[in-house]
Write a structure and sequence with these properties.
Length: 83
C-alpha cells in the first residue's frame, strides 16, 4: 500500500508541475496545509482568486490523472490475478 500511495503522490505532483503558475502555487500551498485565506494572504490575492485557481487546478488534474490512475488500477488488478 505504501508503494501505491507513493506512486499516486508522484503522479499528482508531476501533474501539478504542469499546471499554470498561478494554479500550481495555490495547489502546492494547499497541499502544505494552508487554508484558502492563508493562501490568499501568502500570494497577496483575494480569496476568490484562490478558489478560482483551485477550481481550475482540480478540473485539469481530474482530466489528466483519471486516465493514468485507471492504468495503475488495471495494472494492479492484473498483477493480483496473475499471482
Amino acid at each position: 500500500h505504501h508503494i501505491i500511495e507513493e506512486e499516486t503522490f508522484n503522479i499528482l505532483f508531476n501533474e501539478i508541475k504542469n499546471l499554470p503558475d498561478s494554479s500550481k502555487e495555490v495547489m502546492l500551498l494547499a497541499l502544505n496545509g494552508l487554508k484558502n485565506q492563508e493562501i490568499a494572504d501568502e500570494l497577496n490575492v483575494s480569496i476568490n482568486t484562490v478558489k478560482t485557481q483551485k477550481k481550475i487546478a482540480y478540473a485539469k488534474l481530474k482530466t489528466r490523472i483519471h486516465p493514468i490512475m485507471n492504468n495503475v488500477l488495471l495494472f494492479l488488478e492484473n498483477r493480483k490475478t496473475n499471482k
